[in-house]
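Give me the 3D structure for IS21 family transposase.
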Amino acid sequence: MLREAMYTTIQTLFDKGYNKTQIAEMLEIDRGTVRNVLKKIENGEEIKRKNVASILDPYKEIIHIKIQQELSAMRIYQDISEETGYTGSYDTIKKYVKKYKDSNSRVYMVNTTLPGEEAQVDFGYVGKIPNPSGDIKKAWVFCMILSYSRLMYCEIVFNQEVRTFIKCHENAFRYFGGVTETVKIDNLKAAILEANFYEPIYQREYEAFNKYYGFLSIPCRVRTPTDKAKIESGVKYVKNNFFKGRSFNSYEEYKKGLSNWLENRCNSRIHGTTKRIPKEVFQEKEKQTLRSINPKGYDFGIWTTRKVNVNCHISYDSNFYSVPYKNIGEDVTLKISDKLIKIYSHYELIATHIKIEGKGLFSTNNIHYPEYKVKTKTQLQYEYRQKMLEIGPSALEFFDKVLDKNQNHWGKPIYGVLKLKDKFGSDIVEKACKRALAFGSIKYQTLKNICEKGIYEQPTDTGVSLISKAENDIHRPLSEYANLLSLKEVR
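Predicted structure for IS21 family transposase (491 residues):
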């Protein structure tokens, strides 16, 4: 199939008076090809451009993902060369990345929200000011804005750590009197560990915090100002309208001044976009839609990881705490607070324990074990008694005598009897139990010999007393046991 340019060349030469043979010789193509092209042109057929495969076709999906991760063209080239065996040039990657970015950066949608649906948060650097101790330190302003009413909360901070970030959230919720359904956050290190729009890895403490207050946090895409336009404008406004050109002598003066500015200027002016006063819109339409605040503040803790041992416990501070048996061998996450230890698996709470005072102690919840591991002695006795009853009345009597003789070590012999049933059948084991009981024996080995040697049908009436005359002694004399175990015929 010829390229579009070749069709145009053939038509141009033909229009200039060259015949088919001359055109074929000039272009070094077959004369029949020239004839077919001229025929298509004469019939008015549309000449379509041939779709030429690109060396990037197998890699475009990967390239798109890496562009979303804000990787440079050089980094994308290096990654796909190492990971996929791409053999093309860097320039090809560079041109495609530029073309893709240009084609996806022109159109934006207006993000509208319902009352109580969304808040946006961000930090803005405001220079060096006095901290509560009087030292001059770098400072930021934390801002949260309600996307519907544009009501805003601001607070001066001196770091962007997780605890500060969460405390600012709580203060904002109390200022608004409630919690929105979602909070849109910038890709701050305090909340987001990896800036990936599709699978953000939330900072563990912040993830626990938003679950505690019942809101969903949504990270903004990197370098996409339209995702957080409201808070971008809000931070810019507070920096230019309050901080710029103002200087106070102490942190308390800054704090008081910012509070007055929020109340009397920021939230009381006619907003430039909505053309309404944020405070009025909030009172009329948004305040009642907010979710109620948890009256007890969020409990910060220490986070660490432990591996679940085969005994269904993890170790912390020389004490042991149980975990569901299905998590054996797994690395789980612990949140340690003053009184509680909460254990998580992939952000799901799987166990809670009261923190133990002391060393070498266990906190065990029996539901963390398999059911068969936590049955009571009575339950086990009942289950095995029913199994022996299914064999027959003599087997049941055998069980009762074994249990009566030794309350704590009846399990192994009875388990052995049930294994004999699996091998020989209930009928033979029932007869073997009857014969062993007739000779006063309640030993598993006696039953096994009777079954294996097939003497369960032999008579038991020998005219000789088989039971020792000693009071409460159900065993036969040793000579008679010897005869029984050696399987000599009893006459």
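Residues 4-42 form one domain. Let me know if you want a second pass.
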